[in-house]
Structure formats: structure tokens, C-alpha cells
Amino acid sequence: MSHFARSFGRTLMLAAFGLVLSTAASAQMREFNGVIDNVSEKKLIVDNRKGDKVSFLKVEETVVEGEKTKWEDLKKKDWVTVHWKFVDNPRKAYKVVVTPAKEEAGEDVE
Questions:
Q1: For the segment 52-75, what is each residue's pLDDT rounded down to a tens digit?
Q2: Which residues are paired to 85 by β-bridges?
Q3: Structural domains in the chain (count)
Q4: Which domain does 87 fall in, by range?
Q5: What is the Cα–Cα distance from 104 to 108, expressed in whole angstroms?
Q6: What is the 3-state secondary structure (H, E, C) of the chain?
Q7: Domain holding 62: CATH number?
Q8: What local confidence, expressed as pLDDT, does residue 26 receive?
Q9: What are the tens digits of pLDDT across the range 4-28?
Q10: Is residue 64 part of a domain?
């Protein structure tokens, strides 16, 4: 086999491997929607109103978008979508998107 063929084969394999890795990494990103139950300087607890409360750590890469743009402005009862990676343990908040408040389902009792 010629040197050119071996080099081309290696390059092709590396490109395919890189594509597989990038696809796997992006596939692991998840979203969790809900209302903030508690927030501190380093941690956020979100309640999805279906019986799940999940905590997320603030990391250096954490960004806040939407109706608020700073972690310090987040407060209890804000509605958010938290972007996190499935492989993280404990969970880390990479992006927190603050959304408009949602109306609670149910009827008013008088």
C-alpha cells in the first residue's frame, strides 16, 4: 500500500471518528423545564410541576438568557428551561433560559 493511500485512510478514519464524537456529545444535551423552587449563588433547584425537583450547579460556562441575563437576577418562581448534559453527575446548568410565567392549570375556588 502506498504512503498516500495509508495517509488518506488515516485522515478519513479520523474525520469519521470526529463526526461520531461530535454527534454523541450534542446528543447528550438535555432540557428541563419548570419553575425555580430555590436558587443560591452556586445552585438552582427547578420543579417541573409533575413531581420532579432537580438541582443544577452553576459552572463557569453557565449563561442566562431570555427575560433575565444574570444568575444573580434569578429568583424563586421564575419559569426556566435549563440545558444540561446527561453525563454530568452532579447536573450542571450550561444555559438557563428564563421564560414568561405560565398560568397554573386548574380552577379558582371561591
A1: 999 999 999 999 999 999 999 999
A2: 29
A3: 1
A4: 29-99
A5: 10
A6: CCHHHHHHHHHHHHHHHHHHHHHHHHHCEEEEEEEEEEECCCEEEEECCCCCEEEEEEEEEEEEEECCCCHHHCCCCCEEEEEEECCCCCCEEEEEEEECCCCCCCCCCC
A7: 2.40.50.320
A8: 54
A9: 556 655 665 656 555 555 444 554 8
A10: yes
**In percent, how much of the chain has pLDDT > 70?**
69
Compute the mean pLDDT over every residue in the chain, rounded to the nearest whole number: 84
Q: Does a structural domain hold residue 78? A: yes
Cell numbers for 54: 432537580
Instruction: Tell me whether residue 108 is in a domain.
Output: no
Question: What is the pTM for the complete model shown?
Answer: 0.70
* Cα distances (angstroms) measured from residue 14 to each of 2, 7, 20, 28, 78: 19, 11, 10, 21, 45
Grid coordinates representing 99 are: 421564560
Q: CA dist 36 to 20, 44, 51, 56, 96, Å?
A: 35, 7, 14, 11, 11
